[in-house]
Amino acid sequence: MEYSMNNASLIDLKNLTLEELTEFLAGMGKERFRARQIMRWMYGRLAQDFEAMSDLSKELRSQLSQRARISHLVPETVEESQDGTRKYLFRLEDGETVETVRIPMEDHRCTLCISTQVGCAMGCVFCHTGSFGLVRHLAPAEIVNQVCAAMAEAPVNNIVLMGMGEPLHNLDNVVKALQILYTPEGFDFSPRKVTLSTAGLVPEMLELGRRIRVNLAVSLNATTDEVRNRLMPINRRYPLAELMKACREYPLQPRQRITFEYILIRDTNDSEQDARRLVKLLHGIKAKVNLIPYNEHPASPFKAPAEESVSRFQGYLLDRGMVAVRRASKGQDIAAACGQLKGKLTAAQSRQSSVDSSSPEHSSKRGNR
């Protein structure tokens, strides 16, 4: 995101919903329809400065440039998998980084996986992002700008808030970002095309359902409190019974289901007993189960499940009338799982720092301090 201290006092218009932008312009004595014009420029045409907005008067463009700015993100690193998955590392204005992944689907369509926080506070032991801890929340503009950057390359058909961070831990900014994404004068995304994934913050789940429409995905990953406590510390605060109650109360459209993400980990949660408990746990919930074989990485002791375990687990669910889909692994050759590209960059920087600190020049400077 290009930024200088001269811009620090300017209002980032991408942090504003249409209603807030209308109010901002009204304070400048401008007509309501100007807000819709500016939204179309920022999102429909991906304008990055006011001078590009040719249907605004020169006077208005000048006034805007004195009071506001339009932020944007440029990828610092892009990795592309053999299967077409593209992973972007974006550096934010304060120097922090977040990841976004473009996942190719059938018929030349794609899903964009976006981040909502720098790091994460949930501490799920199988998740690489959790090893960074929570640094800060992303602002609405930083969430939306991931979509803008991807749209600049090619259209995006679906959005999943499943990247770095726990979306419901950043609820206000996430809701505002969704409102911007849904705005007809913006990207005009349908709520049916957007999915939010949570580790299970129960009060925030219910508040989300009251405030805005979005597909809900729950990261479940275990069928007993004992195992889920170990894998996902949030379960100690909101155990399975409480989480399932909230899922039953979550407002759904007639044909909508809650997606339950279940990462299969060898000898941890991939047994037939787990499958049996999962069927019982989800009884009475309009559910779809995404089965995700664990994606191993060096920082974790967990292992991917055996192929026969995955097939047996899925078969048990299907035989009992459940919707159970095995999610295909994408981008394994580019470390496309959450936090892995950031982790690679951090490790490389650490190695470089170590090399620099051991160099004769650095040692000489250190000795002069």
UniProtKB/TrEMBL annotation:
Residues 347-369 are annotated as: Disordered. One of its GO terms (cellular component) is cytoplasm. The keyword Membrane does not apply. Binds 1 [4Fe-4S] cluster. The cluster is coordinated with 3 cysteines and an exchangeable S-adenosyl-L-methionine. GO terms for molecular function: 4 iron, 4 sulfur cluster binding; metal ion binding; rRNA (adenine(2503)-C2-)-methyltransferase activity; rRNA binding; tRNA (adenine(37)-C2)-methyltransferase activity; tRNA binding. Specifically methylates position 2 of adenine 2503 in 23S rRNA and position 2 of adenine 37 in tRNAs. This is Probable dual-specificity RNA methyltransferase RlmN.
